[in-house]
Amino acid sequence: MAALGERKLITAISRWLGEASPRAPFGIGDDCAVLPAVKGHSLLTVDPVIYGEHFDDHVSPQAAGEKLFKRNLSDIAAMGGRPRAAVVALAFDSRLKTRWLAAFYRGLAAVSRRYQVPIVGGDIARLRGGIVASLTLLGQASGKRVVTRQGARIGDAIYVTGQLGGSLRGRHLRFTPRLDEGAWLARQQGVRAMMDISDGLAKDLPALAPANSLPALNVNTLPISAAARQTAKQTGRTALDHALSDGEDYELVFTLAAGTPPSAFERRWRQTFPKVRLTQIGHFVRRDRAQAQGCIDLGLYRGFEHLIDAVPGRHPTSAEGQP
């Protein structure tokens, strides 16, 4: 990249993105992108991918770019929203190979086209000895309501989409953000709180818990993935541990009001999303009744902590490409 220089690089980025990025002032090339106003609530999220943390030499640059975009799309899905536009900030060592960066941006462009979300700007900067890419995504509520992490009540049922655990076997790169599912759930009156599972269910689920409550989970119904079971054979940990702790599932976990008939709700789900599994995994109970309800102690399962040493084996090891 040192041989290319900043001006030529910006021109190259526009070429790599192609139709994924409109012309200035609605895309790359001006001090700010210009977006039309929308009615209702706007949503804003930002997430990075960092070399050595979210990807490494075994992950292709295309896959790293796609993962960056989809991580942010999952956040919009968790609020029941729709994505509108993205900006990308990238800091890298000047010795980075041009062909690696070109493939990274083409990965971003592929997701942009797939979900019809334009990349309207960004920034580049020098970083000695690393690569950090951050994408900021603007979205909007898909209807009259935005679903947050607050609102659950004691007695509410807890549901998850898809399957959990074993994401390092490839799903952390190949997942599908639950945008349609999140927008549908936001329209259901009985859905009170929701978030996506990025750091592991054991760490994320307590964020939905109402005051003075604990989640009573039925571990026999927890949708443990085949990848989690395969990983457990290699690590010596249980498949349940992996399902609760691995993270990067990018599935939705949400609560359904206790007065909502679950059979009717689940039937509507199957009619709308016949290929996406939905599982009721438990409900919230009063803290002083947790022992009688047989609640498992989620504190025994680690999940991913961003500000302490990484969990051994968390980094991906199943693709290809070198910066």
Please describe what this structure looks like.
With 323 residues, the chain is α+β, with helices and mostly antiparallel strands. It has 2 domains: 6-32 and 40-141, PurM-like, N-terminal domain (60s Ribosomal Protein L30, Chain: A); 157-300, PurM-like C-terminal domain (Phosphoribosyl-aminoimidazole Synthetase, Chain A, domain 2, Alpha-Beta Complex). The chain is 28% helix and 24% strand. The protein has 9 helices and 10 strands. The chain has a 5-stranded antiparallel β-sheet with strand order 7-9-6-10-8. The chain has a 4-stranded mixed β-sheet with strand order 2-5-3-4. Strand 3, helix 3 (98-115) and strand 4 (119-126) form a beta-alpha-beta unit. Helix 1 (6-17) runs parallel beside helix 3 (98-115). It is globular, with a radius of gyration of 21 Å. The N and C termini lie close together (11 Å).
